[in-house]
């Protein structure tokens, strides 16, 4: 793995059934590349939560994954409503997801906390009415 | 214990993965909220849930869950079962409710994993 491998995904809006397909694809590619199971687990969970968030809150968006010899960087960019209070959004259990989403098994208020827990670095850039970009890094 | 042991304890029925019943399971997680499962699940786990949609299978895939047990007699549809088959998962179904299913497995020696 001398070079950086870049993977790009378009996350389609409002298609909850397909949410997670990108994360699933990344997981199988990391396995093929022989990445350690621990790193794969962290990337899979962090990216899957992020992907679900993009479908629930932001009408989809774009995910870029950069796999280098040192780390895996995930950049999740959406043009959704933005996060009004990032401190609250980071609290375990705090959620703005509608009941409909809860009935699908999400909206427990663990999305962003899980993303932080399973990545080694996480940065959230958000602007109301413009969108949110979350960058997560998992190191080997 | 093995998946087969858990199946016997719950009087469960196999829906997918009959050929993998000898797989080892070391802990279990019971929840209808997949984000909670993603937060707390351990390696070699069983996932017990009453939620019946494709995201249950994806959550199991991300966590390398060994076996999914649908409780309260929930019947996953063919799409869900096909997804499980493609991912080499074992899927069981039991009529027991969540509380009883977890209790029976705990009593049989399975725990929630170190917290």
Descriptive overview:
- The complex is a heterodimer of chains A (140) and B (115).
- Chain A is α+β, with helices and mostly antiparallel strands.
- Chain A is built from five helices and five strands.
- Chain A has a five-stranded antiparallel sheet, covered by helices on one side.
- The two termini of chain A are 13 Å apart.
- The model of chain A has no long low-confidence stretch (mean pLDDT 93).
- With 115 residues, chain B is an alpha/beta fold.
- Chain B is built from five helices and five strands.
- In chain B, helix 4 links the parallel strand 4 and strand 5.
- The radius of gyration of chain B is 12 Å and the shape is globular.
- At the A-B interface, helix 1, helix 2 and helix 5 of A face helix 2 and helix 3 of B.
Main-sheet strand order of chain A equals: 1-2-3-5-4
Tally of separate helices of chain B = 5
Shape of chain B: globular
Calculate the mean pLDDT score of chain B and round it.
94
Strand content of chain B: 15-25%
Question: What percent of the residues of chain B sit in helical stretches (DSSP H or I)?
Answer: 25-40%
Largest sheet of chain B: 5 strands, mixed
Question: What is the subunit organization of this protein?
Answer: heterodimer
Supply the helix-strand structural class of chain A.
Answer: alpha+beta
Spatial ordering of strands, largest sheet of chain B:
1-5-4-3-2
Strand content of chain A: 25-35%
Mean pLDDT of chain A: 93
Task: Using brief descriptors, characterize the structure shown.
heterodimer; A: 140 residues; alpha+beta; 35% helix; 27% strand; B: 115 residues; alpha/beta; five-stranded mixed beta sheet; globular
């Amino acid at each position: 793995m001398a070079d950086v491998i870049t993977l790009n995904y378009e996350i389609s809006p409002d298609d909850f059934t397909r949410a997670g397909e990108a994360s699933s694809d990344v997981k199988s590619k990391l396995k093929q590349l022989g990445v350690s199971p621990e790193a794969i687990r962290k990337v899979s969970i962090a990216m899957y939560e992020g992907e679900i968030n993009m479908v629930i809150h932001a009408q989809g968006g774009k995910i870029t994954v950069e796999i280098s010899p040192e780390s895996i960087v995930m950049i999740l960019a959406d043009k959704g409503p933005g996060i009004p209070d990032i401190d609250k959004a980071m609290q375990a259990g705090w959620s703005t997801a509608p009941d409909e989403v809860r009935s699908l098994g999400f909206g427990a208020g663990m999305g962003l906390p899980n993303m932080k827990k399973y990545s080694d670095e996480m940065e959230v850039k958000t602007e109301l009415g413009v969108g949110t970009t979350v960058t997560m890094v998992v190191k080997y | 214990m093995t998946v087969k042991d858990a199946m016997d304890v719950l009087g469960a029925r196999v829906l997918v993965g009959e050929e993998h019943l000898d797989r080892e399971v070391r802990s279990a997680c019971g929840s209808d909220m997949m984000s909670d499962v993603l937060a707390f699940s351990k390696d070699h786990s069983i996932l017990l849930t009453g939620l019946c949609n494709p995201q249950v299978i994806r959550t199991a895939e991300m966590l390398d869950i060994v076996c999914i047990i649908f409780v309260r007699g929930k019947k996953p549809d063919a799409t869900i079962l096909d997804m499980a088959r493609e991912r080499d998962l074992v899927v069981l179904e039991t009529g027991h409710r969540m509380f009883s299913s977890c209790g029976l497995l705990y009593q049989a020696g399975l725990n929630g994993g170190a917290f």
